[in-house]
Amino acid sequence: MTQIELGWGAGPGDDYETIADRFRPIFAEIARDANERELNRTLPFEQIRLLKEAGFGALRLPKDEGGLGVTLPQFFNLLVELSEADSNVTQALRAHFGFAEDILNSHDPVRRRVWTARIGRGEIVGSAWSEVGPGAGLDRFATHVSGSNGHQVLNGAKYYTTGSLYADWIDVGASNVQGEGVSVAVRRHADGVDIVDDWDGFGQVLTASGTTTFTNVAVTDDDIVIDEERFRYSSAFYQLYHLATLAGIGRAITNDVAKAVAERRRSYSHAAATRSSQDPQVLQVVGRIRGAAYSAGAIVLQAANALQRAFDTRFVNDPDSEEKANAIAELETAQAQTVVSDLVLQSSTLLFDALGASATKKPAGLDRHWRNARTLSSHNPRIYKDRIIGDFAVNGTPPPYQWRIGQSPT
């Protein structure tokens, strides 16, 4: 069935359904055992392999560079569909797609040629940027590149290294000899790279967002890029990625609660009907949840259009237009963040109002929706986004493009 027939609204672009149909059988396969994987902490290696082999990792690459050439609205809508199947899989690929987007914006033809070839072959990139502990500052990374004369090495430790366990490459945030922030690409299986699945958060438990250490990992100048040269709308891109994942969770909640209500036989003596499927109050709850999922998806697509406009300005040699488009993309994504997260978090609690106490049993796995949504919503504090939006509305202050997390120097 098309997205329109399912009641989620038209997909972006006349060719969206053709593109989506290529992946929907895989999404269905991923969804089939999603709850069981989460209950048993079974990492989705096989599910990510299926997506890699189908070319999902090359969605944004132009067709003449081995990809499908999808627009950003089409890309984010596909993420909503994948997240409806299993949000863990979507989150595990977030770093890869952010890296691929950076390659599409690169002004370095050699770097672009090397990486589009790798991504077009199905190679996946993981992430290693966040640091914890006393050395993790706001101003620079403790992870660093040292050495000279062609003999450089990378040393350090990272946490929240989402997706790296499934990847072929790891994109590492570090400091170079001059103290500049750099991005370093290393092979996931290179000597000195050690990845541990020690992520102990209550949500997104299968994303392998644990610790990665780098011990004298050999790197070359070709592996290193100055961090300031990365694509301008990266902060908006990474945040909208979370929102698309949340919108997919909203659809998964809708599916689960509708199925549970349709199958439910037990009722209460003071209920409005003998079957939950005929109880107007229960149906009202289900309808509210579905409306929230619809709204979340629509908001994601609207913000995705803003990112597409920012992408379209990257090579037009008009700094003013580029600046305005990137600022608006950041603003629209910030405005979407608190609303989408509120809608999905509320739905993840409301679903239990449509069911009985048996819905809280662990095998049902219905708690995973709140746990996953709450975890995603905690990556970028929502209170700061509200303040940034208010500052723009009152004072015209443009939103900041980039932000870091770490210990303050004071």
TrEMBL record:
SUPFAM superfamilies cross-referenced by the UniProt entry: Acyl-CoA dehydrogenase C-terminal domain-like, Acyl-CoA dehydrogenase NM domain-like
Q: Which UniProt keywords apply?
A: Monooxygenase, Oxidoreductase
One GO molecular-function entry: monooxygenase activity
Task: Extract the InterPro entries matched here.
Answer: Acyl-CoA_DH_C, Acyl-CoA_Oxase/DH_mid-dom_sf, AcylCo_DH-like_C, AcylCoA_DH/ox_N, AcylCoA_DH/ox_N_sf, AcylCoA_DH/oxidase_NM_dom_sf
- Ranges where the Acyl-CoA dehydrogenase C-terminal domain occurs: 244-379
Any keyword Cell inner membrane? Answer: no
- In Pfam terms, one family for this protein is Acyl-CoA_dh_N
Please indicate if the UniProt record lists Oxidoreductase as a keyword.
yes
Q: What is the lineage of its organism?
A: Bacteria, Pseudomonadati, Pseudomonadota, Alphaproteobacteria, Hyphomicrobiales
Q: Which residues form the Acyl-CoA dehydrogenase/oxidase N-terminal domain?
A: 16-108
Q: Which organism is it from?
A: Rhizobium setariae
**Top-rank taxon:** Bacteria
Q: Know the name of this protein? A: Monooxygenase
In Gene Ontology terms, what is a biological process of this protein?
A: L-leucine catabolic process
